[in-house]
Structure prediction request, 464 residues.
Amino acid sequence: MSAPRISFAALGRLFNLAEQPIYVLDGELTIVFLNQACRDWIGDPADGLFGQRCAYHSRTDAGGDGFAAALCPPPAVLSGETAVGTVAPPGVDGATTERRTLFTPVPSGDGSLLAIVAVVDFDDMDASAADPRWLAHRAGIEVAADPVDTAVLHDRIRRFRQEAALRYGADRLIGEGPAMRLARQQVALAASSRCGVLLVGPPGSGRQHLAAAIHYASAQSSNAAAVYLPLDCALLAGDLLEAVGEIVARPAVRDQPGTLLLHRIDELPAEVQVQLHDLLTRRPSAWRLVATASEPLGELARRGKFRDDLASLLSTVTIQLPSLADRREDLPLLAQLFVEDANAAGAKQLAGVSAAALERLDAYAWPGNLDELAQVVAEAHGRAAGPKIEAADLPDRLLLAAQAAAHPRRVDETIVLDEYLGHVERELIRRALARSKGNKARAARLLGVTRPRLYRRMVQLGLE
Prediction:
């Protein structure tokens, strides 16, 4: 006699009896069920989670699925592996608590992924038993450790995004180096005030992203409407500057916490610098000023390439952003960050970047800085066929750059004829003097020159 079949409704009632939070995803990573313990744990947002997709990323503003992403399984589960991960959605009181969760894939008859069952608050001993690496160890099989633990990188990025007070691109400030720690402190200071800010860094280092982050963080703190006006100073002419001045001075927006971004202020023509300084000093405005430059304006002013009074006006707070080449220790985190951004934008879900691919990324000079890294990772994400981005998925220019660095072009040495002949003549005179035991007349005869000529050459060549 066959066993009785259990309906989905009956299975849901059984799950609701469990004390542990349990939720179920379908094969497209869409949330289709949360038991009562899970709903009590999450609180009011639980009702809005049905139908949301749990992509493998840590963004909080990714098209409304940021909350659901906090429940995402590790990408290994998509390959049919049972895995243990960390989920951390905001709780009822708004605080974030990390929970160890067991993800069990449920295959369909044709081998494709039918569903994923997630059991929250999984016991550590049980979690280790569900880990394939632990099972291999128990069976006496040695498995090489992964030098790039993408799960650890994912958790670090998630914690940074949840703890950071700023959004809208401020996640690019992730990193443990002293330069990035100082930059984060300065950004928090700038966001809490209305003083002028100068963002200094090479192109592609995230200057415009950070300017927007400071603006929106200030607007959120004041609970007021925000107006953000970016201007490219390399293209700014006098007539356009006057039009901007009229906009800034309008009473309708004067009391709003607007931000005027003067992007690439160091490329502003000298005659327009005069007009800008006059505009900013004779027309009082509530707008805050944020400017970007490739180097400090004070340094440019000392070299006579920028107005000193305008440099002082725009440099109340100066935030220095290092190039990507100067923060290579952050490459694994940044690459993981951009992988998860690509996960959030499409259906393909990758765990991260392999060790071999990271080595190739580290060997590249990154003239385009963070913007170029984001582009490279997005391109490789589209090419990748496995669970991680491999070295073969990266653009060819990275491989060519690595090969060129390993085999630098040989530089032809320039031969200075007079210097070369001087070395030869000096050596011949030394040999003649040695054979004649220091007798200059005999040495001159050996060389076929007169004694006075030999003496003059010895003086000219520094031998006398």
Confidence is low (pLDDT under 50) at residues 124-130, 134-145.
